[in-house]
Amino acid sequence: MKVLFFLLCLLNVLFFFWKLHFGALTPSVEPVTNIPALLTVRERQLARRGAQISAYLDNAAAELQAKQVTDILQRLNPPQVVLVFKTSPHTPKPTGSDRQKTAIHHCYEAGPFSDQEALRRWASTEHLTVFKVANKSTMVSSDFQVYYPAGKDAEQTRINIMMLKAKGLNDVWPISDGDIKGAISLGVFNDRQRAMLFKNQLAEQGVKAEIRLRNKLRDELFIRFVGGQNAIFKNVGYTRVADIDCGNALK
So what's the pLDDT on residue 238? Predict the structure, then answer.
């Protein structure tokens, strides 16, 4: 049996080398030829159509890419718009009367004036033909009053008056109203320096007096008129007021 087995193995080996010797295991190589493959009419039509579609898609993609690049550049660098206004040669030039109509005017108030005559003289000097006269009540400084401070009650006020008269101050009287009601007036002066001198004299007599400035309402004359935007007026104080204060003078 062993002899038979080895004999079969030997036969297989010999058969393998015999096949190898005659090229059974070598892959076959097809000969290279330059003859083009044959296409059917349908295949040729499909190939041409595919080439056209591919070219169209390539062009569309290139145009889309170029448009996107242009849009990005425009957003990064917006174009500068320059507006050029040309005057038509037929446009009429503004005349002197037109310039006068477009000039800006405002309402002014000037004063105060001592009387009607002073007001009219000033208006004539400034060549004002249309104006309005306005009466205004203004608070002005009147005089300086020297007084002795008020007592805590009427009895104290009576005692204070007696004390002041005993010191030789006969021209005294109690103040019956205002913010220092109950005080005792000792004198009234037109200027502060004289009032201070009298106060110091009272202090030497042992009287501690005070001074207050008294104001009063005074009617004063003002003039309202129309003037240019940059107008300058002389010899009187003036200010701009609401245009309605000049009434119809602005129309």
Answer: 83
